[in-house]
Model the fold of this input.
Amino acid sequence: MSKIQNIFLYIFGLFATTVSAQTDVDAIMMAKRNLCGGFLVGTNSWSNYWEGKNYRNNENIGVLKSNSIMAMVNYGITDKLNVIASAPYISNSASKGTLRGQEGFQDLSLTVKYEFLSKKFRNSYISLLAFGNFSTPLTDYVADYLPLAIGNQSNTLSGKLMADIQRGRWFATASAGYTYRNNVTIDRDAYYTTEMIYSNEVRMPNLMGFNARIGYRKDADLIVEAVFDQMNTLGGFDMRKNEMPFLSNNMDMGRIGLNFKLPIPKVNGLSLLGNTMYTISGRNVGRSTLFMTGLVYQVEFSKKSK
Done:
């Protein structure tokens, strides 16, 4: 199997679960003492990729695929403060080649979501929100097993600000965030980036992200929206030609997509979620197509809740 085959599955597993449940990325708040939980299943695949800025393919690996199942739960501590938890199970594979895929639970993600401003302005409603997120590996999976690693074994801390404006049933949302990633220890004493490093510790570059969406929203039950999502690595280095990737590569990605949330008729509190994303630009990543869908159920623990 050519080393270039290693590029795809690693990045595939790394970004297979970048799309979370809608409550992680929108301006909808869960009411006090309300709980919403459910499962999302997804598949992500590609056969073409960017090696640095060079766009190319590889006929030896076939189609790269990553399947995921994610459990999520969102609880309203108050009408303005929510806590969200999620955890994915990931399985990676290639249609050709000899390396076996890796699968398992990846990282536990905990998010605090706070709406610090909600105000009516003329005929519109404006909301400002802040997010704090922490993630940590759930299992001792091997991060330095490229391309089959399901994650990078790095603990992360993220902060994000979001602005949302709704006029009637039409809305627009924009957010920007920063993610700190701690260093990772690997099972070798030396490795090469742009120079030889005699250490088993890998310095992970941090991330910046931007997200914009526009669409139709009827309360919190019916949502259809178009999405643009951009991720940039703050540092790192390009993959060398015909070589495998490394944990601290520079990985940038721009994607467009569609999200929806639909109520299930005759079942109060049950909703269907769906998402599709397509990579339109990148650096050291694959041109992937992602599909996710799932069910979430909301239950109210107090009659005083909204």
